[in-house]
Amino acid sequence: MTGFRTDIEIARAADKKPIMEIGAKLGIPSGELLPYGHDKAKVSAAFIRSLAGRPQGRLILVTAINPTPAGEGKTTTTVGLGDGLNRIGKRAAICIREASLGPNFGMKGGAAGGGYAQVVPMEDMNLHFTGDFHAITTAHNLLSALIDNHIYWGNELEIDTRRVTWRRVMDMNDRALRQIVCSLGGVANGFPREAGFDITVASEVMAILCLASDLEDLERRLGDIIVGYRRDKSPVFARDLKAQGAMAVLLKDAMQPNLVQTLENNPAFVHGGPFANIAHGCNSVVATTTALRLADYVVTEAGFGADLGAEKFFDIKCRKAGLTPAAAVIVATVRALKMNGGVKKDDLGAEDVAAVREGCANLGRHIENVKQFGVPAIVAINHFASDTEAEIEAVKAFAAEQGVEAVLCRHWASGSAGIEELAHKVADLADSGVAQFAPLYADETGLFDKIDTIVKRIYRGSEAIADKSVRDQLHQWERQGYGHLPVCMAKTQYSFSTDPNLRGAPTGHVVPVREVRLAAGAGFVVAICGEIMTMPGLPRSPSSERIFLNERGEIEGLF
Q1: Closest by alpha carbon to 134, among 41, 195, 201, 180?
Q2: What are phi and psi of 465, to 5 degrees?
Q3: Strand residues in 184-256 grouped as ranges (E)
Q4: 3-state SS of 286-334?
Q5: What is the model's pTM?
Q6: Taken in order 47, 215, 103, 131, is the CA torsion positive or negative?
Q7: In this structure, is the dihedral angle defined by the CA atoms of residues 260, 267, 200 and 412, taken in order, positive or negative?
Q8: What sign does the dihedral 420-425-430-432 (CA atoms) show?
Q9: Which of 310, 470, 500, 545 is the most exposed place for a label (fewest CB within 10 A)?
Q10: Can you tell me the distance from the alpha carbon of 163 to that of 230, in angstroms, rounded to the nearest whole number?
C-alpha cells in the first residue's frame, strides 16, 4: 500500500534498471539505443527501419468515461495493465504521450501514471525529458519567423498579412500571449499585424510528428502545412517558403521514440503529445508500430474520454497508420460515476449507490460507442479507498447489462498484483479474434457529413449545425482535394454535448460548428465546436508555487 507516500516519493525510490537492459527485453541491441543518461534512450531510426515486415502484436486501447474533477486514472491504468500483462507472462509494452510543461506548472499535473503504476524517471518525463517538445517548438517557430521574414523582404508570394493563419507556440500556459500584435517598433521590424501564441501541444507540427511514418513522410507533411492565404484566398504552403527541409532537420532526433521503464522495469515508449481537442490526442505512430513489432501486446491510450480520444484514435490514427486494435479498456471510477450522477465533489466520500447507477449512463454510452467500431470492450474500475462494495457491485451489474465485464483494479496501491485479473481477461479478449475493426465513416463521405455522423452516432446529438460560411469553406476544401481527410472534432471533454456542465448521457442536443481549420500537413480537418482554448492560462494558485528543490537537490512538489 502507498500510505501517504506521494507519487514523486514512490518514483524516487524506484529500483530502476539500466535502459540497455530494458531494451534487451524487447530485443533491441544496445548499439541501437541512443542513451540520455542511464534510464532513458531513443530508439534509432535505422533499427526501426529494420523491423519492417515483422508481424505485429495485439494493440489494446485504454480509454475512459468523460473526465471529471474526481479523476479517472486512464494513464495509471495503462501503465498498470502493461505491468499486469508482463506479470502473467506476456511480452508487453506500453505507449503513452509525453507531458507538457504548461499543465505541470499550472493545475492538471503530469502524465506518468500514479501510485505504484508509474513510468520512470517521473521527474524527467514531466519536465524536459529528451527535448522533443523543445525541438517541436523551435521547428514551429522557425516557420513563423520565415513567414514574417518573407513578408519583410518584399512578399514575393503575395501573402495577405490579414490572412496569416500560422501562429507561434511555447510549451507553457500564458494567457497574455493568446492575442498579440507583432512587428511593432518601426520599419526595421517589419509590417505590424495581429498574431498570437498556442501551447506547443496544439501545434500542427506536434500532430505531424505523431502521424508521420518516417523522416521522408515528416518532411512531406511539413511542406504541406498551410501558413496563410493570398488576397484571392489561394493557400500558401510551408514548402513555398522552402521551410520543410530545415524544420525536418530540427526534428530529426525528436522523430525517434523514447524508451523508458515502469516501476516494475517493463518497457514503455513515451513519444509525442498532441492535444486531444484541437488534434488527435495519441502518442506517435512510429512509437506504436515499433512497439507492435517488438512485443506481443501493446497497451496505449488516447486523450480525454472515449467520445474524443477513442473516436480520434480509431478514425484518424488507426485509419491513417493501418492499425487494427484487438481490444479496448474503458476506465471508470465510482467517484466519477457519482459525479455524473449528480453528486458534488465534496460529497463523493459518502456511499450513494443510486447516484452510481445514475452516472453509469455515461459509461454505457462509451461502451456502446466503442462497440460501434467493432472493437470488443471491457471496463476497468479504478479503485479508490472510499469505494464501497455496494457501489462496486452496482458498476459490475450495469456493465453486465451492457454485455461487457467490469473488473475491479487496485494497481494504484498494489502495482501489477492489483490488476492481474484484468490482465488475464484483456489478453483473452485480444486473443479471441472477435475484433472486426472499421472506422465510423468512409474516406469518400463529405466533410460535413463526417462531422454530422460523429455528432449523431458518438455524441447522440440531433444534428450538427454550421453557418453558410463554414459549409462553403468545407466545400471549397473538397474541391481542392481535401475531401478524403478525416475530421478532428474540437469540443469540451467534459460532456457529450458542447456544454461542459451537461454530464451523464444527454441526447438530442444540437452541436454548433463555430469554425473549421485545415491541418493539411497532419492530414485532418478540425471542426471547432464551442469555445476551445489553444493557449491555457494559469490558475489563481498555480502548481509552480509549490515546486522547489530541497536541501538534497531533489525536486519537491511536482506531485
Answers
A1: 201
A2: -125, 150
A3: 193-195, 197-199, 226-230, 235-237
A4: HHHHHHHHHCCEEEEEECCCHHHHHHHHHHHHHHHHCCCEEEEEEEECH
A5: 0.95
A6: positive
A7: negative
A8: positive
A9: 545
A10: 7
Q: Which of 497, 512, 522, 419 minimizes the C-alpha distance to 465?
A: 512
Strand arrangement of the beta sheet that strand 487-490 belongs to: 487-490, 524-528, 515-519
User: What cell was used for 383?
Assistant: 479503485
C-alpha–C-alpha distance, residues 244 and 223, integer Å: 5
And the C-alpha cell for 392?
462496486
Structural domains of the chain sorted by starting position, each given as residue range(s) with its CATH number in brackets: 7-130+254-431 (3.40.50.300), 132-250 (3.30.1510.10), 447-528 (3.10.410.10)
Residues 303-327: b if buried by 16+ CB within 10 A, e if exposed: bbbbbbbbbbbbbbbbbbbebbbbb
Residue 289 carries which side chain, given as an amino acid letter?
Answer: T
Supply the DSSP string of 221-240, one letter for each residue.
HHHT-EEEEETT--EEEGGG
Mapped onto helix, strand or coil, the DSSP state of residue 452 is helix
Q: What 3-state class would DSSP assign to 470?
A: helix
CA torsion through residues 338, 343, 344, 348, sign: negative
Distances (CA, A) of 33 to 36, 213, 258: 9, 19, 9
In this structure, are residues 316 and 288 in contact, taking their beta carbons and an 8 Å threshold? Answer: no
What's the number of CA atoms in the CB half-sphere (13 Å) around residue 251? 32
Using DSSP bridges, classify how beta strands 524-528 and 515-519 pair: parallel, antiparallel or unpaired. Answer: antiparallel
Q: Which of 300, 305, 270, 314 is CA-nearest to residue 85?
A: 300
Nearest to 373 by CA among 306, 429, 422: 306
Per-residue pLDDT 10s for the chain (559 aa) are 445 688 888 988 999 999 999 999 999 999 999 999 999 999 999 999 999 999 999 999 999 999 998 778 999 999 999 999 999 999 999 999 999 999 889 876 667 899 999 999 998 999 999 999 999 999 999 999 999 999 999 999 999 999 999 999 999 999 999 999 999 999 999 999 999 999 999 999 999 999 999 999 999 999 999 999 999 999 999 999 999 999 999 999 999 999 999 999 999 999 999 999 899 999 999 999 999 999 999 999 998 999 999 999 999 999 999 999 999 999 999 999 999 999 999 999 999 999 999 999 999 999 999 999 999 999 999 999 999 999 999 999 999 999 999 999 999 999 999 999 999 999 999 999 999 999 999 999 999 999 999 999 999 999 999 999 999 999 999 999 999 999 999 999 999 999 999 999 999 999 999 999 999 999 999 999 988 889 999 999 999 999 999 999 988 888 7
| Parallel/antiparallel/unpaired status of strands 58-64 and 297-301 | parallel
Compute the distance between CA of residue 406 and CA of residue 403 in angstroms, rounded to an integer.
10
Among 359, 357, 353, 355, smallest CA distance to 340 is for 359
Asked if 364 contacts 61 with a C-beta cutoff of 8 angstroms, the reply is no
